[in-house]
Amino acid sequence: MSSATTAETGHISIHAENILPIIKRWLYSDKEIFIRELVANATDAMTKVQKLKVLGEVKREIDDAKITVVIDKEAKTLTISDNGLGMTSDEIKKYINQVAFSGVKDFVAKYQDKADDQQIIGHFGLGFYSAYMVASKVEIDTLSYQEGATPAHWECEGSTEFKLSGGKRTTVGTDIILHIAEDSLEMLDDWKVRELLERYCAFIRYPIELAGNVVNDPNPIWTKSPSQLTDKDYLDFFHKVFPGSPDPLFWIHLNVDHPFNLKGVLYFPKVRHEFDATQGQVKLFCNQVFVADNCKELTPEFLTLLKGVIDCPDLPLNVSRSYLQTDPTVRKISEHIVKKVADRLTGMAKTELESFKKYWDDIHPFVKFGMLRDSKFYDRMIEHVLFKTAKDDYLTLDQYLERNKEKTDSTIVYASDSQAQAGIISMLTSESVDVILAETLIDNHFLPYVEMHSQRKYKFSRVDSDITKHLKDQSTTEIVDPTDNKKPSEKLDEIFRKHLSKQNVKVKVEAFKSPTLPGMLMVDESIRRLKDMTRLSTTGKDDNPWADEHTLVINQNNPAIKTLLSLAKGLNKDEDLKMAVDYVYDLAYLQQGKFTAEMMQQFVDRSTKLLAKMG
Ligand code: ADP
Ligand code: MG
Hints:
The chain is an alpha+beta fold.
């Protein structure tokens, strides 16, 4: 054990003389992280001495673990003090002059040619020497816990030259005194320093005192067990960490010891726009030391909406983006998170179904997106996926089949636009056929995927595909008209074929149980899907050959259709008939909700003419 009683000067063992200015220039944009590095070092030193104390290896008095930050505006210094294990002058030579500096050297060697890559630089901490990002000179005043050690003092002005001498510190621990450089004088501002401590050191496990106030929370919720915590604790924590966000829907408390260490709380936020998942934010900590603000690498793409904190002591504190992208631990963490999210969701579906239904409208796009992306997640979620029905019920796919098997031939009937399709929907629901709502963008992909993945155990048909069988009135018997020997359906068929202006439309006459709708357009489910796909891929241009391949289904039980039939008996009524037939088509078309400007114009013209005829 040696002590520095006589002053000593020397050279930090390094060849490149200009390393510090280089660091300073490179790290300028993120220079604030010096505070995290110095506080982390203080924390390490205190953890170590506490351990040694337990082992009975500390003979000296140790003050309670605490970090003190003191600003001296006149002297232009910022001092960070701890009651950690301290250093002897030999240890300073070893850890500060050699070890820490070689870390800096490695950094320079590795990133010299990547000076513009802010991401790498910003996330590569430099430990002790990061102090030179804001200081023109740094002093260390330290007293080691070791018996017989004498206080040591080190100072260095950011060149490779240092001074080592006896120090003045009387209690075990270390002061790091930063002489703030002219271009960083804001680091002498209480408010600024407080803000930085709150940003980078909010959950350091020992109290940090600034101007007599403790600025951090040494026991954040992720260090506690869920049984100690109330909903309010989780919500308060959320609002503290993510101010200005609305209450989250629910949360997942992570606590893993094996095969890696991981603690954290992830919140499912309320998201207002379907794909507005970019709002998520997972803050990464390493033993309560802040590492990075928005760790997209830790969560799979479909869960980037999550907000929360993760503490992973297995990841290095000075972690770079590129490291995160390739590290196998990070991948395992991400998989673990998916598993936990699935556990939470399935658990909720099993034991808190009412909450699950309540959250479903908010979370379903993410659940579906996740199922499309991750087949393990799909397998776990498929039996719990809910669909809202037109009657505001929520059904799983199996429940749907159970309730509608007979009525729909084991097909799941869905609406893609409940407003436009309201007429058909109400005809179906009045026949107690459940109609599920699949109205969001993701459903276009999700339904076909589920069909394929379930080997067509689940088949979907849109309300306007050929589902008329569920609506047909089997009891209607047609009376042949003795004057022309034809059934009404035959006559209607002729009238519509003859007068309908629209080309390429097939006509079919049915008798529906409900008289409400005069007609509806039906499109074969598979042709329509093909059409939807082509439309998506041809930038909205509707130029494929199936574009108009649909059937106008006429409801002969509808009063307007009956009127039309009797109108046909009159002479010279062709013009009126044509208008009425086209009008029925318009009404049917409207239920798809997609009038073109031209069709709208014609519809208004026809409506006006019809009104004029009333008088
Ligand atoms: P790291 O923390 O990754 O080891 P640093 O450059 O931050 O690298 O620190 C270098 C070394 O200096 C530390 O490992 C430690 O031995 C010593 N050290 C730095 N700060 C303190 C402190 N406040 N108290 C005791 N030792 C310290
Ligand atoms: Mg360090």
